[in-house]
Specification:
The structure is a single chain. By secondary structure, this protein is an alpha+beta fold. Helix content is about 45%, strand content about 20%. It has six helices and four strands, in the order βββααβαααα. It has a four-stranded antiparallel β-sheet, with no helix packed on it. The longest helix is centred in the C-terminal third of the chain and has 21 residues. The chain is elongated, with a radius of gyration of 17 Å. The two termini are about 30 Å apart.
């Protein structure tokens, strides 16, 4: 079972596709804004097998992420690696995020840390970083 998040280039937001162990499409989650034409084109072109998705995505240059197996708060807490602040509040903020936001947050930690080093800034408490969705900024 694999999940992929397609990041919109011609639309705003993300689309999640999940495939079962038999390579068949199991779930489509639209967390995006598409106009009628985009929606119609997407529905007509939905890759029903994982192999078809990967083939088409590679050929067409679609930007996508593979969903990490573990999107737990424990993984975030370990990767964020700033054990200051209110852990319980940070966990509540984490649990409010969508799956695609969790993926983005986990992927952004590395870039955020580099940004802080370059700018010589202090790291935000995890709950602040999550509640303000700083991982969605294009600063870093």
């Amino acid at each position: 079972m694999n999940k992929y998040i397609i990041h919109g280039q011609s639309f705003s937001g993300n689309v999640t596709l999940e495939y079962d162990c038999n390579d068949r499409l199991k779930l489509i989650l639209l967390e995006c804004e598409m106009n009628d034409k985009q929606h119609e084109q997407f529905v007509r072109a939905i890759p029903l097998s994982e192999a078809d998705f990967l083939n088409r995505a590679t050929r067409s240059g679609v930007i996508f992420s593979t969903v990490p197996v573990d999107l737990s708060f424990a993984t975030f807490w370990q990767k964020y690696n700033y054990k200051v602040g209110d852990k319980a509040r940070a966990e509540k903020m984490w649990n409010k995020l969508s799956e695609s936001e969790r993926v983005t947050a986990l992927k952004s930690i590395f870039h955020y840390n580099k940004f802080l080093q370059i700018k010589k800034l202090d790291k935000a408490y995890a709950e602040t970083w999550l509640s303000q969705k700083r991982f969605l900024t294009n600063e870093y």
